[in-house]
Amino acid sequence: MANIYDHAYELETALRNSEEFTQLQEAYNAVMSDEAAKQMFDNFRNTQIELQQKQMQGQEISEEEVEQARKVVETVQQHPQISKLMEQEQRLNQVINDVSRIITKPLEDLYGAGEGEQQ
Amino acid sequence: MANIYDHAYELETALRNSEEFTQLQEAYNAVMSDEAAKQMFDNFRNTQIELQQKQMQGQEISEEEVEQARKVVETVQQHPQISKLMEQEQRLNQVINDVSRIITKPLEDLYGAGEGEQQ
Ligand SMILES: [Ca+2]
Ligand SMILES: [Ca+2]
C-alpha cells in the first residue's frame, strides 16, 4: 500500500519537474500576467465550458453560438502567447493520458479478459 | 520524459502487485467462474450502465425502472461473492482516485493559483 503511494509521489515529482510541465507553467504565467491575453483566454475557456455543458445537457446550440465560438477560437489561435499555452496544454494532456493508460493497464487486463477464456 | 514513463511503469507494477489488486482479481475470478453469479453480476452492471446513460442523456427514468434497479442491487448485495467483488472494486477505486489526485496535483496547483495572487 505504502509502496503504491511512494511510487505515485515519485511520479508526481517527475511530472512537476518535467519539461512538459515547466513549459506549460511558463506559458500559463505569460498569459496570466498580460491582462488583455488573460481576458481573451478566460473568454475562450468560458465559451468552451458553456457549449460543453449545453451539449451534455442535450440543449440545442444555435447557429449564432457556433459562429461566436468559432470567432473566439480564431482569435485565440492568432494570439501567440495563448496559442503557445494551448499547445503546451495539449502536450501535457498527452503525457497525462499516456500515464493514465499505463497505470490502469492491470484493470484493463482484468476486465478486458472477462469474456471468453478464463485465466 | 523517459523519467515520467519509467515512474509510471513502476507505479503500474506496484498497483498490479498490490494486495488491493490481487484481491480484486481473486474476487473477480470467483464471480466469473460461477455461471449464476456471472449472470447476476452482468445483469447488475447492464442495469447500472443503462440508467447512467439515460441520466446523462436527460431521459426520464420510470418508477418501474428505479424499482427494478433497487431489486437488482438488493440481490447482488446478498450474494457473498458479488458483494465481495464490489467491495474490492471500491477499495481499488479509492486507491486509483488517490493516485490520480496525487499525480494531477501540479496541474491543480498551477490552475488553482490562476485567480488572485500571481506567482
Ligand atoms: Ca475470463
Ligand atoms: Ca496567479
UniProtKB/TrEMBL annotation, chains A, B:
Gene3D superfamilies: YheA/YmcA-like. InterPro entries: Com_YlbF (IPR010368), YheA/YmcA-like_dom_sf (IPR023378). SUPFAM superfamilies: YheA/YmcA-like. Pfam families: Com_YlbF. Coiled coil: none annotated. Belongs to the UPF0342 family. This is UPF0342 protein QNI29_04405.
